[in-house]
Amino acid sequence: MKIGGYNENLSRIIDVDIASRALIFGLKYEVFHELEADYYYRLTSDEKNIKSKRNKFFIASMTFIEEIRLFTQQNSPEKLKEVEKYLYHFFLSVLAMTLVSPLI
Fold first, then answer.
1. Is pLDDT of 5 > 50?
2. What is the pLDDT of residues 36-61, one digit of tens each?
3. How many CB atoms lie within 10 A of CB 101?
4. Is 68 in contact with 20 (CB distance < 8 Å)?
């Protein structure tokens, strides 16, 4: 498939990366709202671990933005402007989240 497999440059949000590339490439999808969630995530209450996880997520998010922009440029340049708008809003959400719990 032309969207590629796992991106080894990403340490996190790999599923988001693959889904984003599929959508950019124009693959169709269907949402099943009536089904139970098939994923879970761990909540952390320790402040040191929270900061570490947020830092790793921030770094992975910045890598994701660069990689998706490059993928779009190479595979669907006509969609670049639209994807860049999405990435800009994604960046703002990541930035807002990191301000809630400082990375230091």
1. yes
2. 877 666 666 677 777 788 888 899 99
3. 12
4. yes
Is the overall model pTM greater than 0.85, yes or no? no
Q: Which residue has the tokens 């890598």?
A: 63
Tell the burial category of 84 from Cβ atoms under 10 Å away from its Cβ (0-12, 13-18, 19+). Answer: middle
Mean pLDDT of 11-39: 85
Beta strands in the chain (DSSP E): none
Cα-Cα-Cα-Cα dihedral sign, residues 25, 77, 91, 48: positive
Rounded Cα distance between 59 and 73, Å, is: 21
Helix axes 47-75, 14-25, angle to 10 degrees: 20
